[in-house]
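Thread: Newbie trying to understand structure tokens

Hi all, I'm a second-year student working on a class project, and my supervisor (Dr. K.) asked me to get a predicted structure for one chain before our next meeting. I've only ever worked with sequences, so writing a 3D structure as a token string is new to me. If someone could post the tokens and maybe explain what I'm looking at, I'd be very grateful. Here's the chain:
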Amino acid sequence: MNPQRSPARAARRIVLLAYDGMNLLDLSGPLQVFATTNRLQGEASGPQALPPYQLHVASAHGGSILTNAGLPVATESLAALDMLLDASQEGRAQDEAAIHTLISPGGSVGDSFTLDQALVRWIRRRAPQAQRVCSVCTGAFHLAEAGVLDGLRVTTHWDWADELRRHYPQLQVEADPIFIRQGRIWTSAGVTAGIDLALALVEQDLGHKAAIATARQLVMFIKRPGGQSQFSTPLASQSAGAGRFAELHAWIAANLGEDLRVESLARRVNMSPRSFARLYVAETGRTPARTVELMRLEAARRALEETSLPLKRIASAAGYGEEQNLRRVFQRQLGVSPAQYRERFSAH
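---
Reply by user tm_fold:
Sure, no problem. This is what the structure looks like when written as tokens:
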């Protein structure tokens, strides 16, 4: 039996750090993932089974911290947590850490990130003892200040990537991925990406089925892999042009197998093809054909990541018609075949 999945194994201690001004969802998103996994695993294993996770939310001085949404969150103090960690470490096996996963959530009030130096000092002392160390959004700043991220590929919310790069030039900051894993260090993008990160941690601990069960319980549209981009083509398209073409973009995303030539799209917005094409480029910065191409590519990528459907069906559903067209687009846009992409990013 795999000892990692043994029911006799002690619960994995998850520590989420908190501070005034943090983003509520950066904390509550991952926290809910682990809490939901605990409930589902308990239902599957019976009331006597040990939950897979023991959850702690800690701040420098304990008590209530105020999130940037204005909602207070109750926390335990780092001093109290230290006492618990030191006591629990004495009874653990030599290769087991008192902290299984340390998570540094992000968020700020205003346009600049203010470090909580007490958290930085605690991270610098405790992170080397944790099996996994993770950040969500600007939580990467705390890890970077503590020296945890030196020399690593990391990510954060796209809007903070340049500032993270300026302050910590020793990091290899990438603004695109949802999350990046470098050994035991995981960094993720902002807000909802923390949920994707937590689901990936559950999958590493308990397997794909457990992670998918949790994602379904949370009504996640998809469970996104770390290589997925922070930028959704349909969402970005709906944001473009002050909403002028928002309904058209939503229709395109839902009807990728239809005739999406300029003439057909122009009819849907009651414009001549010439006027539509000119106004569309002026409002969105790209041609209608380019938008359709990006949406079809994203739909095909998601199908390869999230399903085991044959390439022929994926090509048809995404509007490519023939499988060879799908292969041609992937080679041109991504430099890999659909099969190679699935092998790299599929969760199946």
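A couple of things are worth pointing out once you decode it. Strands lie at 12-17, 53-59, 63-66, 72-77, 101-104, 132-136, 153-154, 172-173, 179-182, 185-188. The longest helix spans residues 24-45. Feel free to ask follow-ups in this thread.
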